[in-house]
Amino acid sequence: MTASPELRTAVPASPQLLRSVFRQHAAGVAVITATGGQPVGFTATSLNSVAAEPPLISFGVATSSSSWPVVAEAAHIGVHILAEDQAELAATFARSGADRFGPGTDWRHGPEGVPVLDGVLAWLVCRVVARVPAGDHCIVIAQVEVGDPEGGGRPLVYHEGRFTSLRD
User: Model's pTM, two decimal places?
Assistant: First the structure.
């Protein structure tokens, strides 16, 4: 077998390799919320549909995140799919030390007391069913209890280290 002229040298596993490869992977942008006295939330690109029956989702959260102590104990979490015009909202929830639920964020207390963001494409409130340690993160698996899929519009996407939108 002859090597293709396009074949490049493989790079050994490292955090940098993982980050570089996943910069090439376009991902939808979500905000995960929870409450433990005060609302917390963070931007996630690791949201996945796990199963339809029962309806399960998963996402990863860094255990060093300021939101982790609340998410680690929360019985319920909110999942919000952001629209293409919500890059600033995504950046606010991604920025360390930001006032995520301040005057620039429209939200309300939703089912189970979970913070629900207004104006998103879709949202869910889910009951946490498992937390699986995974390196410096934890994978949270949650069962959907209620939601609203009717926001309409196009999703916000994260690709090559920036928020962007789909092109026609």
Answer: 0.91
